[in-house]
Specification:
heterodimer, A: alpha+beta, Uridine Diphospho-n-acetylenolpyruvylglucosamine Reductase, domain 3, Vanillyl-alcohol Oxidase, Chain A, domain 3, 2 domains, seven-stranded antiparallel beta sheet, five-stranded antiparallel beta sheet, 15 helices, 35% helix, B: Rossmann fold, Rossmann fold, 3 domains, four-stranded parallel beta sheet, 19 helices, 7% strand
Chain lengths: 472, 361
C-alpha cells in the first residue's frame, strides 16, 4: 500500500518497521499511538506529492518537528503517516538589510541563532527546547519562552509562510516586508494551528539586533502574594525586563534537596533579566530592584558578570530536574503545564493551585514566566497508578476551571494538542464553530493531524493510549 | 523477554519525559537523522521492553548497539536521567536473553583465550624496573593497535624521569559492562595480583577506559592503589619544549564526560603550544569520535563517519595537530583521516615525546 510513498521520498527516508513506528508513536506528552509509516521528505515537492496521495487515499498525516511538544500534538492519534520534517533544514537566506531570514521548517532554533549571531542579530523566541526544537514546530505551536515578556511569541516574528495545503497545493502567505496591511493575515492563521491546516515548508522570519549586554537579578520574598504584586508592578510601571521568572516554595525546597543549593526556603524567588546598552540596563535593573524592595523583598542579588549571572540562573535551570527528583516514588507528568492568566492574577492562581493539589492528595510545583502571567507546573504522581491518575484528572479539571475563572487561557506557549482540548473547548466555545469551518474548508477529508485541538476527544485520559503501564 | 536488569532503572524511565533534549549533539543521531538513533528512542524502547509492550527484534537490537555510550545525552538531560545506565541495563538484558552482536561475543571469547580484545598473541612487556612509584597499564588498543604511540609515551616517561614499571597485564574488561557482557573474572584476578607484585603505590593508565575501569569498577575496588591518568601526572611535571604549530585537543568521552578530567590535558598543552585553539564543541560538549560502546566493532562505517565529523571541527580551526589522550580516539581519527587532509593526530604524551626528541616544531 505504501510503495507509492516510498517512491516519493526514497527507501532511506521511508520506514514502516515496528521499531521506528513505536519510536515515532510518542512525543513529550503522556500519549503513544502507532503510525503506519514514517516519511522524511527532503523538499516541498515531496511534501506536495505525499499530501496529494494521502488526500486521495484519505490517510491521516501528522507533521512532526523534533517531537518536543508536551500536549500530544505530534502523536498520530489516528495512525497513518508521520511526516518528519527535520531533513528540510536549510537556512535559505539571511537578509539583514531587510531584517528577515527565510528558512525551511526543520531548522533548529539555536542553529538559526548561531548563524544570525554572526551578523549581530537574533530570532528572539527562546523556548526551553531551543537546542533541538524546529522552527516549523515553533510556528505550529506559537512557541515563546522566557524572553516573550519583552520580545513576544513566535507569532510576532512570522512575516510570511509557504504552506502545503491538505490537497497538495502550495500557497505563499504573508509578505517579505516588516509590516503589511494587505488583507487577511493568513500566515498568522497558520501560527498555532498545530499542523491541522497545512504543512509549513518555508518561513520568513523577522529578526532583531542582539542586545549589547545583559544583567540579571534575583529577589527573595517571604510572601508569595508580595512577589506576585511586585511582578505586576514591574510591568505596570512600564519596565521592560527581557525575562521575569519565579519559583515557588516547593520548587525551592526541591532544588535544595536535589542540589544542596542553600536557597532560603521562602514562598517565592523572582528572577529578572534586562538587556540593551549599559546605561539602559543599569537604569532598568535599579528600578526593578526598587519595586521588589517596595514589596518587601528581603534580599536582592544583581550581576552582569557572566559567571555570576550563570549562578543566578542556576536556580531557574534547576527547577525541572529538581522537581523530577522531588520524591522517589513520584515522577512528573505533563498536564496543565503552561496555563496563563492576566499578570495581576498570578499569585492568586498559584495559591489556589497549591490548594487544589492538597485537596486532591497530589503535589503540584509551580515556576515559570511570571512576566507573561504563565506558570509551568510539575504534576508529581506515580504514573503507573490508576488511582493517582484519577486524582490528577480531577486536579487538572479544577486547575483549568480556576484559570478560566481568572480570565486566563488554557495554554500560553505549548499548544492544545490532545491533553488540553477539553478545557480549550470550554474556553473558546464561541469560536469553535468558526475554527471547524476553516478546517473543513482547507481539509475536507480531515487528513491533517485529525482529532486535535477543537476536534480532539472530550476526555483527554481516554483520548488515545497513555504511554505508561498503568496498574489498577 | 526477562528484564531483571532494566527493572532496577524503572524510575529513570518514568522520570524521562521524552523531551528530546538528548538529541542535541548526539553523534549517532547526527549521522543517521532518524529519531530512532537518539537516546530518547532508547529510553522509549527500554520502557517498552520492561513493560512488555514490545518484543525484542533485530531492529531494536541495532538501536541499542548503535550507541557509543558517549554520555552527551546525560549532559543535555534537564531531568538528569541516568540514560547510560538504562542503555547498559537494556543491553545486558538483551544479551542475557540471547540477543547480541557476534563481534561482541567474539571479543569476550578473545579476552578469555588471549587476554586481549583482539585475540592476538600476547606481547611481552619490557619490565622497566623492579621497584617503582607507578605500575603502568597500557591496555589492549594501545598495545595491539597503537604500538608506536605507546613506545613514544614510554620513551617520554623515561626521559622525564618518572619511576614506573610494567607488568604482565591482561584486558581490564572495562568494555564488557558497556556491551552487556560480564567481565572475565580470571583476568581481573590476574591483573590485581600482577599489580600487587610490582609493589607500586599508584597505577598509571594511558587509556581513559582503563583509567575509568580501575578507578570505578567495583571488581577493582579492593586494589588499594591510587589510579592516575597520564594527563594528571604530566601536568605536574616540568615541560620545557615548545611548538609553533596550531594545536587543538579532543576530549575523549571516557576521560572527559565519564571521568571529569577536562583541564589537565589543556594545561599541559598550553605549556608547550602557545597556538592552542579549542574546537567548537569542547569539554562536556565535545563530540564523540565514534569509537566507543562497541560501535567500532559492529558499525564500522558509522563509527568512521562520526570520527570524520569531529576531525572536520579540528580542520575548521585550521589546526596542524589534533591531540587527544585515548588510543581508541587516536585509532579512529587516523582511520577517518583522508590522505589529502594535512593534520597530524597524536596522543598528547606521544606528541610531547616527539617534541622532546627534537621533531615537529
Amino acid at each position: 500500500m505504501f510503495e507509492e510513498l516510498k517512491d516519493i521520498v526514497g527507501g532511506e527516508n521511508f520506514s514502516d518497521s515496528l521499531t521506528e513506528r513505536y519510536i515515532y508513536s510518542s512525543d513529550a506528552s503522556i500519549y503513544q499511538s502507532l503510525p503506519s509509516v514514517i516519511l522524511r521528505p527532503g523538499n516541498t515537492e515531496e511534501v506536495q506529492e505525499i499530501l496529494r496521495y494521502a488526500n486521495k487515499e484519505k490517510i491521516p498525516v501528522t507533521p512532526r518537528g523534533a517531537g518536543t511538544g508536551e500536549v500530544g500534538g505530534a502523536v498520530p492519534i489516528d495512525g497513518g503517516i508521520v511526516l518528519d520534517l527535520k531533513r528540510m533544514n536549510k537556512i535559505k537566506e539571511i537578509r539583514i538589510g531587510d531584517l528577515l531570514c527565510r528558512v525551511e521548517p526543520g531548522v533548529v532554533n539555536d542553529e538559526l541563532n548561531k548563524e544570525l549571531k554572526k551578523f549581530g542579530f537574533f530570532f528572539p523566541p527562546t523556548p526551553g527546547s531551543g537546542k533541538v526544537c524546529t522552527i516549523g514546530g515553533m510556528i505550529a505551536n506559537n512557541a515563546s519562552g522566557m524572553r516573550a515578556v519583552k520580545y513576544g511569541a513566535t507569532r510576532d516574528f512570522v512575516l510570511g509562510l509557504k504552506v502545503v495545503l491538505p490537497q497538495g497545493e502550495l500557497v505563499s502567505l504573508g509578505t517579505q516586508t516588516i509590516i503589511h496591511s494587505s488583507g487577511y493575515q493568513l500566515e498568522r492563521l497558520m501560527v498555532g494551528s498545530e499542523g491541522t491546516l497545512g504543512v509549513i515548508v518555508e518561513a520568513t522570519l523577522r529578526l532583531k539586533p542582539l542586545p549589547e549586554k545583559r544583567a540579571v537579578g534575583r529577589a527573595m520574598f517571604y510572601k508569595l502574594e508580595e512577589a506576585g504584586k511586585a511582578i505586576s508592578a514591574i510591568v505596570a510601571r512600564g519596565l521592560t525586563p527581557s525575562a521575569l521568572e519565579f519559583l515557588d516554595e516547593i520548587v525551592i525546597k526541591s532544588i535544595n534537596a536535589a542540589f544542596h543549593s542553600g536557597l532560603p526556603e521562602i514562598e517565592a524567588i523572582v528572577l529578572f533579566e534586562c538587556d540593551g546598552n549599559k546605561v539602559s540596563i543599569d537604569d532598568e535593573m535599579d528600578k526593578i530592584k526598587k519595586v521588589c524592595q517596595e514589596f518587601n523583598s528581603f534580599r536582592i542579588d544583581i550581576s552582569n558578570d557572566p559567571k555570576e549571572m550563570e549562578k543566578i540562573w542556576e536556580a531557574r535551570n534547576a527547577a525541572f530536574p529538581a522537581t523530577s527528583r522531588y520524591q522517589e516514588d513520584l515522577a512528573r507528568v505533563t498536564l496543565a503545564e503552561d496555563v496563563t492568566v492576566p499578570i495581576s492574577k498570578l499569585s492568586e492562581l498559584i495559591v489556589n493551585f497549591h490548594r487544589i493539589a492538597s485537596e486532591n492528595g497530589i503535589i503540584i510545583c509551580t515556576y515559570g514566566h511570571a512576566g507573561e502571567g504563565l506558570i509551568h507546573t510539575s504534576f508529581l504522581i506515580d504514573p503507573e497508578s490508576s488511582q493517582q491518575w484519577e486524582r490528577a484528572k480531577k486536579a487538572v479539571a479544577e486547575a483549568f476551571a480556576l484559570t478560566q475563572s481568572l480570565r486566563g487561557t488554557t495554554s500560553g506557549e505549548h499548544g492544545i494538542g490532545i491533553t488540553k482540548a477539553p478545557y480549550f473547548k470550554k474556553e473558546r466555545s464561541e469560536s469553535l464553530e468558526m475554527m471547524r469551518k476553516i478546517k473543513k474548508a482547507l481539509d475536507p477529508h480531515n487528513i491533517l493531524n485529525p482529532h486535535k485541538l477543537m476536534d480532539a476527544p472530550d476526555d483527554f485520559f481516554t483520548a488515545t493510549q497513555l504511554r505508561y503501564a498503568i496498574k489498577e | 523477554m526477562e528484564t531483571k536488569n532494566l527493572k532496577k532503572w524503572k524510575k529513570e524511565m518514568l522520570v524521562c519525559i521524552r523531551c528530546a533534549y538528548c538529541l542535541e549533539n548526539c553523534p549517532v543521531y547526527n549521522q543517521i537523522g532518524w529519531e530512532s538513533a537518539g537516546a530518547r528512542a532508547r529510553m522509549i524502547l527500554s520502557y517498552g521492553l520492561l513493560t512488555k509492550d514490545i518484543e525484542c527484534s533485530d531492529s531494536i537490537l541495532e538501536k541499542f548497539f548503535q550507541c557509543t555510550t558517549c554520555g552527551q545525552c546525560e549532559v543535555n538531560c534537564p531531568a538528569k536521567v541516568k540514560i547510560l545506565e538504562v542503555v547498559k541495563a537494556s543491553r545486558k538484558d538483551l544479551v542475557e536473553n540471547g540477543h547480541y552482536f557476534p563481534p561482541h561475543q567474539l571479543m569476550q571469547e578473545a579476552v578469555k583465550k588471549s587476554g586481549n580484545v583482539y585475540g592476538e598473541e600476547k606481547k611481552e612487556k619490557e619490565i622497566i624496573q623492579k621497584s617503582a612509584e607507578y605500575a603502568l597499564f597500557v591496555g589492549c588498543v594501545g598495545t595491539y593497535r597503537e604500538e608506536e604511540s605507546v613506545n613514544r609515551t614510554i620513551k617520554l616517561l623515561k626521559k622525564l624521569g618518572v619511576s614506573f614499571t610494567r607488568f604482565d597485564e591482561l584486558c581490564c574488561g572495562g568494555v564488557f559492562p558497556d556491551l552487556g557482557f560480564e567481565n572475565y573474572q580470571e583476568n581481573v584476578q590476574h591483573n590485581k595480583e600482577e599489580i600487587k607484585k610490582t609493589g607500586a603505590k599508584k597505577l598509571l593508565t594511558i587509556c581513559p577506559m582503563c583509567y575509568k575501569t580501575f578507578k570505578n569498577n567495583p571488581e577493582y575496588s579492593d586494589l588499594g592503589l591510587e589510579v592516575v591518568h597520564i594527563t594528571q601526572l604530566l601536568n605536574k611535571l616540568n615541560i620545557q619544549v615548545k611548538t609553533e604549530e596550531i594545536v587543538t585537543y579532543h576530549d575523549p568521552c571516557d576521560l572527559g564526560r565519564h571521568s571529569g578530567i577536562y583541564e589537565e590535558p589543556r594545561e599541559i598543552i598550553k605549556k608547550f603550544a602557545p597556538h592552542f585553539v579549542e574546537m567548537e564543541k569542547n569539554r562536556e560538549n565535545a563530540r564523540c569520535c565514534g569509537a566507543g560502546g562497541g560501535v567500532r566493532g559492529s558499525f564500522t562505517r558509522l563509527s568512521i563517519d562520526m570520527a570524520k565529523d569531529r576531525l572536520k571541527e579540528a580542520l575548521d580551526k585550521k589546526a596542524d595537530v589534533l591531540l587527544t589522550e585515548c588510543f581508541s580516539c587516536l585509532h579512529n581519527f587516523k582511520n577517518a583521516k583522508k590522505r589529502k587532509q594535512n593534520i597530524k593526530i597524536y596522543n598528547i604524551s606521544e606528541y610531547l615525546s616527539i617534541l622532546m626528541e627534537g621533531g615537529e616544531k
